[in-house]
Write the structure tokens for this entry.
Amino acid sequence: MSNDPDKVIQKFGDFTYFDNVALWYLCNETPPQTLALAFLNAEEKVCGSMLGVLDAKRREYVHQLMAQQQGSSEESRQAAADGMLIIADGLITRNLIRKEGKYFFGTKK
């Protein structure tokens, strides 16, 4: 969890407010290993939404990685989640995701 007031996304749960296009950008910019580690501690609703926007092969690969990384440390899982916050902020900076109120929308290319 980030405590940086300059960051738009403060915690993993903020991804609940992302539409499918924004989630697609986030999941496709995030390495599969990072997704898998972050998902091990994340809310099921958020993970389910993210997995739902992945193509079938990538989703299967992330599931395999999650199974392999079950014994990973809490520190590495938290680092992966924090990495996703940084990636999301980068997508916002690049105007691929925009914030409207508390919601986030992916911009179509």
Observations:
- The chain is about 55% helix and 5% strand.
- The helical segments are 20-29, 32-39, 44-53, 56-68, 74-93.
